[in-house]
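Two proteins were folded this term; both appear here.
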Amino acid sequence: MSNGQVHAVILAGGTGSRLWPLSRQHLPKQFLTLDGDASLLQTTINRLSPVIEAGNVLIVTQESFAKGEAYHALLPYQSLFEPVGRNTAPAIALAAARLMAEGADPIMVVLPADHVIKDEIQFRERLKIAIAAAEQNKLVTFGIRPTRPDTGFGYIKAHAVDTSDVYAVERFTEKPDLVSTEQFLAEGNYFWNSGMFVWRASVIMAEIEQHLPAVYRIVQDIVAESRVSGNFQRAVETHFAAMPSISIDYGVLEKSSNVSLIPCDIGWNDVGSWQALHEISAQDENGNALQGNIIAVDCKNSLIRTEKRLVAAIGLEDLCVVETADAILISRSDQTQ
């Protein structure tokens, strides 16, 4: 398959509320620079560049985010704006319909805008395997090998069917309790649900029609109106608010018998909490991640981040301290989920 037949759909509509006070409604975490020189959204796009052409990148985000300066830097890419947030299933259905309305049936690489992947070379190798499976009309998800029992993730049970790296999915378990996660790790055939997917546009649309008929009907109304008006975005603004709010995992993947998994060890982190950000940040010899004007004395395993003011910390352990212009967060690290 040529690169022109593969499109990226970047889901950038979340508010990143678990990284408050740095991530806000007007500037959510995907537009922030947390781990490097570029925003998480721009970094997500950049890691795809050897595989997917810039003209084939579609960003799905909330209309209100488009007014910010951080979004203006992304103007070269195509955009699709949601008037309101309705979770991932409606966003993905909308993107598939938009691509198919242009007369194509491409492979869709669906990625959250706000994840960190340290091993980008390995990620792209895994992506090529996923694209090949999607060409065989499979719904493909990336499974992350768990490194610890963690109740903050969904889990996928999968097994190898031959010598390939494409596993058959048995079941999904959404955010199990601690005892279950420990059992999953002991069994060894469970993976974290990364929220990254690859499939053909028509294949996911057929699954949405089967499992989420209400979403499918509204998407078809949008397509029909856009054919008359010639304006897809205006049709979205008319109909999208009627969409149910549901994730693609719960609405489709947990019910489908056509899901495959690509196991990954790519240095993945969803940056879903301050504790997660601590894990991927540079740390001193005492395990502290310090950013800003900070004096830390006898501190261990703590994240301290300041924008402007001097922060002095003495004797902290396993704490998160975040200072912004108008707010301060102080929390135990394990309570920032």
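Next, the second protein.
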Amino acid sequence: MTCGYRLVTIAHPALPREGRLICGPRPPRPFHEGVAALIEAGVSTIACLLEEHEMPRELGAAYEATALEVVHFSIPDFGAPPDTLALSVFLDDLLRRLRNRETVYLHCFAGLGRTGTVLACLLKVAGAVDDPVPLVRAVYDPRALESEAQQRFARAFSPRRATRPG
């Protein structure tokens, strides 16, 4: 089955080799076919960055109709994560899943801004030391990290300095 949308397996030496990280956009309609393509690609966990109002009920139902585990970390469209401490916990969970041989699919709506931002932070937590913006654009998509706010956040993010907003 071809999925009709771009799924990119992220290859970087900082990431755990036991699992597989795939990034891309929200599955397209009809959602059951897009989700079936993810399952065919070996995905076991969906890491969804959509805000609640962006999540179609039909997509949620397509996820629920499968054995996929879905974890959410909502980020405003074109924005940066509002809570660095919660982001650090989310990233640690993704790394744990990869170490446990899971295949994780990370997505927002278009798969560029928020997905690129979280991928940049995940690579930093995993030990990558390069500037995260060109790194993500090289290993994933040259259009990733769409906004200046996302680029600034990714460059400044440090899991050791993570704090709650406010």
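The helical segments are 31-40, 57-64, 84-99, 113-126, 132-139, 148-156. DSSP finds six helices and five strands in the chain. These notes refer to the second protein only.
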